[in-house]
Amino acid sequence: MEENWKDYYHKGLAVFLTVAMCILFFFLLFRFDQIRAYAGMIMKILRPFAFGAVIAYLLSPLCNHFECYFARICNLEKRSEEAVRKLKRLFAGISIFLSLFLFCFIIYVLVAMVVSQVFSSVTMLVEAMPGYILKVTMWLEELVKEDTLLINYVEQYSEQIMTGMQDFAKTQLLPNINSIISGGSISVLTLLMTAKDLVIGLIVAVYFMNSRKLFSQQAKLVVYALFPSKEHLKEDQMQAADWILKEVDIINDYLGGFIKGKLLDSLIIGLICIVFTGVVNMPYAVLVSVVIGVTNIIPFFGPFIGAIPTAVLILMVSPVKCIYFIIFILILQQFDGNILGPKILGNTTHLSSFWVLFAILLFGGLFGIVGMVIGVPVFAFFYQLAREWVLGRLKKQKLKKEMMNAAAEKAARS
Question: I need a surface site. Which of 73, 253, 257, 414 has the fewest CB within 10 A?
Answer without folding.
Answer: 414
